[in-house]
Structures are given as structure tokens and as C-alpha cells.
Amino acid sequence: AQKITQTQPGMFVQEKEAVTLDCTYDTSDPSYGLFWYKQPSSGEMIFLIYQGSYDQQNATEGRYSLNFQKARKSANLVISASQLGDSAMYFCAMSTGKLIFGQGTTLQVKP
Amino acid sequence: EAGVAQSPRYKIIEKRQSVAFWCNPISGHATLYWYQQILGQGPKLLIQFQNNGVVDDSQLPKDRFSAERLKGVDSTLKIQPAKLEDSAVYLCASSLDQGLVVGEQFFGPGTRLTVL
């Protein structure tokens, strides 16, 4: 069965510091994609970063990077130099044909 | 490029009433998705269309929910009759391809439904 697990309901980080949001997944399909989305309080889902299961390099998009450890089935999101505007809910998702989301992690950036 | 449009943004109804949500995907996007997001949870896929055909509706409660995508563009999601547990945000998303391994889904702002 396909499953995505985010074990951190809430996280705090000081402004300008880095933070890691955890995500583990389970699938028997060798071909899959991993996504991170940001959902501010306004409700829209904003795509942040994507990692394919066959990608050798970890994905990076500006201040976002995905720490992909295939053997451990983990796909942690690293946000560098946190900003106040990063405060939001973050969802990890996996696609093997349809997108399955984790429960989310609420990140609060403190000034 | 215009994003995914949804209306209404908010809706309050009483249980046993009916309600409909509308979605206009990004122009040219063949695949359209409806998700239900209950407060404090991640979105759950209700139905996926490829053009105007249904690809996956395995998690759609078909006794009360229905959806259609006319001419492969706009889509409507209906609930009839609504139950208290249907209170949620209903998100529409679209993508260029079938959203398999690659393929970013673009989400609309959502419709927040409250059932009293």
C-alpha cells in the first residue's frame, strides 16, 4: 500500500536559520515522484519541489532542497535561511499515478 | 498565465441540502482533480478526469457525490444530500499530463464548505 508519513505536527524555527521537515514514504512501485507543497493560511497549495525516484541528485529550488534517501524511503525538505513568510503548513506527497498526501507539518518562523 | 479558478470560495449550508462547486482549470491542462481536505489533514483525491473521462473515482462517495467535466474543460462537483462530515475545503487542481511520476499539479484557491 502507498503511504506518506509526516511525524512532526508542528515545528518552530528562528528567522534566518535552516529547518528540516521530515517525510517518509512506502511504496512497492519502483517508479514514483515525491513532491512538497506549501499551504499558507489563505488555503492555496503552492508547489515547492519535486524529486523523481530515478533522480541521482537531490532536487533544489532556491532556498528549498529535498534530501532524498531512497534506501531509507525518506524525502525530507530542507528550508535554508527561514523567512517569516515561510510560516505555513507543509505537505509531502507521493505520486505513482495519483497524488497521496501526508498529514502535514505546521511551520512557524519566529522573528 | 491564469491559474485554476474555483467558485464559490465559501459556502454554508444545512445538512441534507445540496451544493455544487465549479472549477476552471488552466487552459490546455488535460487532467483535472478534485480533492477533499478536512481540517488538519492532507488533501484526499476524490476524482480524477483525463479530458472528459474519469480516470479514478475510487474514493468518491458515489451515493452522495457526483462530478462531471463538460467538454473536457470546466468541472462541477456536487454533493446531495450533504452531511456534517462533508465540512471541508474542496480543492481543484489541474496538470498537463496524467500526473504520473512527473507532472506538477496546480491547485485552485479551494472552496470552504461548512455543513450545519
Protein model, in words:
The complex is a heterodimer of chains A (111) and B (116). Chain A has strands at 3-5, 10-14, 19-21, 24-26, 33-39, 46-52, 60-61, 64-69, 74-79, 88-95, 99-101, 105-110. In chain A, 0% of the residues lie in helices and 53% in strands. In chain A, strands 2, 5, 6, 10, 11 and 12 form a six-stranded mixed sheet that branches. In chain A, strands 3-9-8-7 form a four-stranded antiparallel sheet, with no helix packed on it. A two-stranded antiparallel ribbon of chain A has the order 1-4. Chain A is an all-beta fold. Chain A has no helices and twelve strands. Chain B is mainly β. Chain B is 0% helix and 48% strand. Chain B is built from no helices and eleven strands. In chain B, strands 2, 4, 5, 6, 9, 10 and 11 form a seven-stranded mixed sheet that branches. In chain B, strand 4 and strand 5 form a beta hairpin. The mean pLDDT of chain B is 91. The chains are: A mainly beta (111), B mainly beta (116). The interface between A and B is medium-sized, with 27 and 26 residues.
Order of helices and strands of chain A: EEEEEEEEEEEE
Give the oligomer, counting copies of the same chain as homo and different chains as hetero: heterodimer
Low-confidence stretches of chain A: none
Helix percentage of chain B: under 10%
Q: Evaluate the radius of gyration of chain B.
A: 13 Å
Total of DSSP H or I helical runs spanning 4+ residues of chain B = 0
The end-to-end span of chain B amounts to 37 Å
Q: Determine the structural class of chain A based on helices, strands and strand pairing.
A: mainly beta
Mean pLDDT of chain B: 91
Number of helices of chain A: 0
The global form of chain A is: globular
Number of strands of chain B: 11
Number of strands of chain A: 12
- Low-pLDDT segments of chain B: none
Category by helix and strand content of chain B = mainly beta
Integer-rounded radius of gyration of chain A: 13 Å
What is the global morphology of chain B?
globular
